[in-house]
Amino acid sequence: MEADKEACQDPRLELARKLFLLSAPEIPDIEKVQLKEDVIAAAREDDMAGPYEGWCHKFGWEIDHALLAKMRAKIDEEVRKLDEKIADAEENLGESEVRDALLAKALFFIRIGEKELTLEQLKITEAKTVAVGHKMDLVFHTLRLAFFFLDCDLISKNIEKAKSLFEEGGDWERKNRLKVYEGLYCMATRNFKKAAELFLDSISTFTTYELFSYETFVFYSVVTSIISLDRVALKQKVVDAPEVLTVIEKIPHLSDFLNAFYNCQYKTFFFAFSRLTEQVRLDRYLAPHFRYYMREVRKVVYAQFLESYKSVTMDAMAKAFGVSINFLDTELSRFIAEGKLNCKIDKVAGVLETNRPDAKNALYQSTIKQGDFLLNRIQKLSRVIDI
Question: Cα separation of 129 and 121, whole Å?
Fold first, then answer.
């Protein structure tokens, strides 16, 4: 059963992952040789003439002109056959057959990696589509195409389009799938809080195997939740979640990363964190935010440690994290200067003193300020009325 689910993963998105790794400087040249062979094999199998030519220019590969000509000839022949089927359906068959023939042409353009032709054909197919469910399926086709090219504008527009369609109707299965698509978009655009919320809402109903495996889904859920949820929510929704517990041990270092963070085992956490960074760096959706994510994780874990103390020595904190005092001093100084940690460093005494903002006092001051503003407005209004 699990193998059948994995087989449903969109091959275009797996190809996009390999193309990303070909551009990653961390990948050894010997691995890139195999990646190149896989990419060219995929292009040959699906007649991806346009993308193949583009990849050759991008990566400096020599173009196989005979292969390119062969792929283009096969594309022309297939388009001719599809056009004949569309014409036959329009002349001799019903509207549903016409729609199916138009969709077949759109799916062919998706297969060969032609973005603009696909979007144009999907628009033509949508004009012949009546059922909301079928329209939603067209949106999902568009979203996967947009994720292949990482066209965030196209993703955003189609997520909004899907939400509008759901106002006309739509089943729960498609609604749950859309949450994962939107969560992936939010993560890819650095909205980790919204991504975590959407992923966790879908964790017990996940069926979106066309995007990624369930292990990858849990990985995304954990890494976004760590920097987005408070301790109570993290415990309830992630640490103790049965869906997470079933697969987390299969993902290298993720269990230590999550549990050491929650259990305040900071040395273990930092070790797991350092091992997990490679997975974040080599993920095509997370990689652009690698430095930001690393900072956010460190900020959250430092804040959690300092929450327990009014003051603590730098030496004690450095030992807890398994790092040097100089490293910790540099790290904390940067976060304090940016206003991300509420503490100050007494360099002479080698002590960290927390200065948490008093929420009640801040609320009191805000109420007084708003009250003064309201009284001034009332006085001005009373003078106008007197006149």
Answer: 12
Q: What is the dotted CATH code of the domain comprising 1-132+139-150?
A: 1.25.40.570
What global pTM score does this model have?
A: 0.85
Average pLDDT per run of 10 along the chain, which is 387 residues long? 53 93 90 93 93 92 92 94 91 87 93 93 89 89 94 94 82 88 95 95 91 94 94 92 92 93 91 91 94 92 86 87 86 84 80 69 68 78 68
